[in-house]
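Anyone have tokens for Purine nucleoside phosphorylase? Sequence:
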Amino acid sequence: MIKYIKETVDYLHDKGFDKPEIGIILGTGLGQLINDIDIIKEVSYNHIPNFPTATVEFHKGKLIYGTMAGKKVVVMQGRFHIYEGYSLQDVTYPVRIMEKLGIHTLLVSNASGAINLNFKKGELMLIEDHINLQGSSPLAFKGVETLGERFADMSAPYDAEINSKFKTIAKNNNIKLHEGVYASVVGPQLETRAEYRMLKLIGADAVGMSTVPEIIVANHLKLRAAAVSVLTDECDPDNLAPVDIAEIIAMAGKAEPKMVTLFKELIKTL
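Reply: yep, here.
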């Protein structure tokens, strides 16, 4: 993997990706943040050596380098999931690339379903902890110790100072921002009523199919990390209706301006 990482980083250096400070991963239906970035360079994933390619129709496939709020940022417009057939090492490969390019902070967004029925669709949830239900770890491969400490500490995977800043920004901008625990599952099928009940019992406030692998690798690389979910549907097992994916994407788009405000204002402070 070290050889692959070097090839990828050398390619991006040649393309003008110069010492970004902050990495951003944009989740399902959350692409409007790009409008607030002064883009210096963008490269399609399928042109980047050793990079996976996004296969989900509502995920773009570009790595973008530019400035936002006076900071150099590198942005994944579209992410990878294990339900697309990728390994956890593939899914998290871009985080390793962003760290080698120079980032010190990783900010992640996603769309998720609300398990906590006090949370409503269209609202945001700041992730304060997570539960990994994806069946493996992105650190479970031979040679991982050459890239960072094998037994990565996960006692505080989400940066407390950044989370505190997010809460202050939300309050100052009248944005409802819940805090909660995010459970990451494999997908791509959505959950059964019994699975929603189980998730509630084990302490999850929201459920999705991403984010946790990237956060694990960010901690492995000693990056500061934070993540925010757009709650796109309410997962009430006693009143469960069939889920319309188009409606989920529309809900993510409707909530997106609030997410953009949080990220933009936060980046000014980093």
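The radius of gyration is 17 Å.
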